[in-house]
Amino acid sequence: MIMMSKSSIWDYENLRQWSAEYYKGVMLTEYLTGEEIAIGKEEERAFFYVAKIKRSYYLIPSAIIEDGKIPFRILDTAKIGYKGKAYFIIKHTKDVSIKAEKTLSYKAMIDSWLDYDHAEPDILTLWKMVIDTAFSSRINVRVITYPGWMKDSPLVVLGKLRGGCYTVNKPTIAKTKFLLNESTRILGLNEIQALKTVEKSDLSRFYEDVGDFKPDYVNPSRAAQGCSEISSIANLSTLTFSNFPKDRMDYAKKHEELFEAMFEPKISGRIFPILLKGGSETVPACKQRFKHVTEKLSGTDMDRITDWLRNFRYYEDNGVELARATPYTQNHVIINTRWDKNYTAICERLKLYCDSQGEYDKWTSLLYDCHQDYLDYENSFTDTGGEPVKEEMI
User: Fold this and answer.
1) Among 6, 273, 277, which Cα is nearest to 120's?
2) What one-character-per-residue DSSP string does 172-213 give?
């Protein structure tokens, strides 16, 4: 059997094979349809989320999803008919979550994850640590790149392996609301410029709450109907993905696609902006050439992915305490206090990667530069003609 290279094990088809084998017979979040139904009379009503596996529909008690108890193995079901359709009500389950175990150093874990050939390898490494921070903490970041940078790839990989990570294109509140629960760790928001004005207004209220790190989000459209719909966002990080506007667009059209042009300052001032250099409109920053995967994933590669995930769980559980015990000093401060909260959370996670204050200075400065690059880019659309505003050093 052909042995995969280190980088090729992260190809989506290989991860699909790993997930299909490891989670065989297991209920995963990706099987949820997003529909929630109520069964029974008013005083005996029970609520269920609908899932579809192949041609069969399952009813999962809503409390299981809302408490984040997915994935799980299905032990017992009962078949019922409801409104002309057949469903299997899930009655008993078994936890199948990955157990934490240190198998690699944090640096080795990050370096071996999506170790693709890239035009900006240091910035890619930094971005992987931002994604890890988003999973293990709470941050709200908006990022702009050229197409093909692979900014959402780490999120997709984590979603397939660990769960709780989703990317929603044209993210209306209707599309995203069933993902707003305690089991969702990262919500990627893509193509927001394609939303209608009223949809952006609803999303603005969502950004306002997550940007303030509130524990819950109240759907304003449902509240207006006198039946407030409250969703937990206590563990939620958001990553908003944007591409640079096309070169052929005129100046005004380019400006309309900026986050700052779509939302009020009170919203843009809550979501930490960074720009990731590399590539161009026609040349992707990711230089990896992907081949169609036809081989079955070997047992060795299955174990390699599983060991990596166990290690990820170890740092998920212990990273905060390990970073707190590392006495490196942060050398920058962001003037905007909400942005600074996100910046500081990422810097705290960077401690795990570094072996010295000097190395820590390198990575925190790179993060700061990515932030300043965004400010400089946004400033290029102003009419002041002045110098970009620079953040202050401590």
Assistant:
1) 277
2) -HHHHGGG-STT--EEEEE-GGGS-HHHHHHHHHHHHHHHTT
Q: Residue ranges per domain, the chain? A: 24-95, 117-287+326-394
SS3 for 314-340, per residue?
Answer: HHHHHHHHHHHCCCCCCCECCCCHHHH
**Token digits of residue 351:** 């401690």
Contact 116, 7 (CB under 8 A): yes
Domain 117-287+326-394 has CATH 3.40.980.20: no
The pTM score is: 0.84
Q: Is 39 exposed, middle or buried (0-12, 13-18, 19+ CB in 10 A)?
A: middle
Helix (H) or strand (E) holding 268: helix 265-268
Put the strands of the sheet holding 237-243 in their side by side order: 165-169, 186-190, 237-243, 140-145, 272-275
Please give the C-alpha separations between residue 12 and each of 38, 158, 215, in angstroms, as whole numbers. 36, 11, 33
Residues 125-169 pLDDT 10s: 999 999 999 999 999 999 999 999 999 999 999 988 888 899 999
Q: What are the residues whose beta carbons fall under 8 Å from the beta carbon of 228, sequence distance 6 or more? A: 218, 219, 222
363/342 Cα distance (integer angstroms): 15
> Which amino acid appears at position 150 of this protein?
M
Q: What span, in angstroms and rounded, lies between the C-alpha atoms of 220 and 229?
A: 8
Residues 256-284: tens digit of each pLDDT: 889 999 999 999 999 999 999 999 999 99
Name the residue with tokens 């559980």: 317
DSSP 65-132: HHTT--SEEEEEEEEEEETTEEEEEEEEEEE-PPPP---S-HHHHHHHTT---BSSHHHHHHHHHHHH
